[in-house]
Amino acid sequence: MPVITCIDDLKRLHRKRTPKMFYDYCESGSWTEQTFRENTTDFDRIRLRQRVAVDMEGRSTAAKMIGQDVAMPVALAPVGLTGMQRADGEIRAARAAEQFGVPFTLSTMSICSIEDVAAHTTKPFWFQLYVMRDQDFLKNVIRRAQDAGCSALVLTLDLQILGQRHKDLKNGLSAPPKLTPAVIADLATKWQWGLEMLRTKRRGFGNIIGHAKGVDDPSSLFTWTAQQFDPRLDWSKVEAIRDMWGGPLILKGVMEPEDAVMAAKTGCDAIVVSNHGGRQLDGALSSIRMLPAILDAVGDRVEVHLDSGIRSGQDVLKALAMGAKGTYIGRAFVHGLGAMGEKGVTAALEVIRRELDISMALCGRKSVQEFDRDMLRVPEDFTGRWM
Ligand code: GLV
């Protein structure tokens, strides 16, 4: 078993062990990838205040996200095609998350279905919804998430159309992969991935194939989004979905204060400041830069979470110290999954918890409830002056 000291260790193994098309899918942003890059480099601009002679015994990272107990306020973000990073990927990741005590969010565009994940886990997970044109599909998928006991619906607001990620087009991304000569040559060096994939039946979009109709190429994410995702999503539809679901609701993809205010008005339980990991609107500011303005806009009216750019426990600490009540990791756990399956997801969570725990101790805090801005050194021009 390799010694894993940081998320980058898992990333290197992920790259080595996973077909290029799926590694690239994970490690891409849209267009020029400016937003994708700045999501992480902006975290690096924030520094921590080292405090000394503070009793650091008896620390805890435990907290609550939307009233639910979490071992640390870090949920696994919804990631499409996770079951292509490693066979049965969503089941493995969900099991690691439940064992660790953090929420797992299943993407609509997952490979393992809602029912499959529910059958292989014992605790409720969260379900992320993309809104499709087909109303029967929409009602049905919400009912399926209710029947599976999902304890929150995470409604994504920033992907009615798909941002272009160049590598996906060049690689001919599909699930399962089409066996072109280039793909076969790549798979020849990823034999463990291939053997596991041959042993599972879960190789297509498990939540939608057999449930939604009328898509020309059911293996293509581009075709699904172009033909089925509902570009007419607006606040009235968000409210209709809230009523259909009737349970805890998280609205994901909010990047501007006026949208945060609209989102809070729906009565949702949390909003996620997110630019979809830099995969949608290239040119948007990083999530961490937008966080202060969004917190100012909504105050205590709604819980504010953050994703996009978190690769370490120090990043988690920075987001929480700025005022977020929860964070999400996407790529960081997918690197673990691609590297070492369920054990790798656990390793990713352990890395992040260790970093969070030690960093908070060295900042003079014993629990995440004690976090505040005083732990940070934020450059004066961090949020910037934008017209
Ligand atoms: C969502 O499914 C994405 O590819 O970002």
Automatic annotation (TrEMBL):
<dbReference type="InterPro" id="IPR008259">
    <property type="entry name" value="FMN_hydac_DH_AS"/>
</dbReference>
<feature type="active site" description="Proton acceptor">
    <location>
        <position position="276"/>
    </location>
</feature>
<feature type="binding site">
    <location>
        <begin position="78"/>
        <end position="80"/>
    </location>
    <ligand>
        <name>FMN</name>
    </ligand>
</feature>
<dbReference type="GO" id="GO:0005886">
    <property type="term" value="C:plasma membrane"/>
</dbReference>
<feature type="binding site">
    <location>
        <position position="279"/>
    </location>
    <ligand>
        <name>glyoxylate</name>
    </ligand>
</feature>
<dbReference type="GO" id="GO:0010181">
    <property type="term" value="F:FMN binding"/>
</dbReference>
<dbReference type="InterPro" id="IPR037396">
    <property type="entry name" value="FMN_HAD"/>
</dbReference>
<feature type="binding site">
    <location>
        <position position="25"/>
    </location>
    <ligand>
        <name>glyoxylate</name>
    </ligand>
</feature>
<dbReference type="Pfam" id="PF01070">
    <property type="entry name" value="FMN_dh"/>
</dbReference>
<comment type="similarity">
    <text>Belongs to the FMN-dependent alpha-hydroxy acid dehydrogenase family.</text>
</comment>
<feature type="binding site">
    <location>
        <position position="130"/>
    </location>
    <ligand>
        <name>FMN</name>
    </ligand>
</feature>
<dbReference type="GO" id="GO:0016614">
    <property type="term" value="F:oxidoreductase activity, acting on CH-OH group of donors"/>
</dbReference>
<feature type="binding site">
    <location>
        <begin position="330"/>
        <end position="331"/>
    </location>
    <ligand>
        <name>FMN</name>
    </ligand>
</feature>
<feature type="binding site">
    <location>
        <position position="252"/>
    </location>
    <ligand>
        <name>FMN</name>
    </ligand>
</feature>
<dbReference type="InterPro" id="IPR000262">
    <property type="entry name" value="FMN-dep_DH"/>
</dbReference>
<keyword id="KW-0285">Flavoprotein</keyword>
<feature type="binding site">
    <location>
        <position position="128"/>
    </location>
    <ligand>
        <name>FMN</name>
    </ligand>
</feature>
<feature type="binding site">
    <location>
        <position position="165"/>
    </location>
    <ligand>
        <name>glyoxylate</name>
    </ligand>
</feature>
<feature type="domain" description="FMN hydroxy acid dehydrogenase">
    <location>
        <begin position="1"/>
        <end position="381"/>
    </location>
</feature>
<feature type="binding site">
    <location>
        <begin position="307"/>
        <end position="311"/>
    </location>
    <ligand>
        <name>FMN</name>
    </ligand>
</feature>
<feature type="binding site">
    <location>
        <position position="276"/>
    </location>
    <ligand>
        <name>glyoxylate</name>
    </ligand>
</feature>
<protein>
    <submittedName>
        <fullName>L-lactate dehydrogenase (Cytochrome)</fullName>
    </submittedName>
</protein>
<keyword id="KW-0288">FMN</keyword>
<feature type="binding site">
    <location>
        <position position="156"/>
    </location>
    <ligand>
        <name>FMN</name>
    </ligand>
</feature>
<feature type="binding site">
    <location>
        <position position="274"/>
    </location>
    <ligand>
        <name>FMN</name>
    </ligand>
</feature>
<keyword id="KW-0560">Oxidoreductase</keyword>
<dbReference type="InterPro" id="IPR012133">
    <property type="entry name" value="Alpha-hydoxy_acid_DH_FMN"/>
</dbReference>
<dbReference type="InterPro" id="IPR013785">
    <property type="entry name" value="Aldolase_TIM"/>
</dbReference>
<feature type="binding site">
    <location>
        <position position="107"/>
    </location>
    <ligand>
        <name>FMN</name>
    </ligand>
</feature>
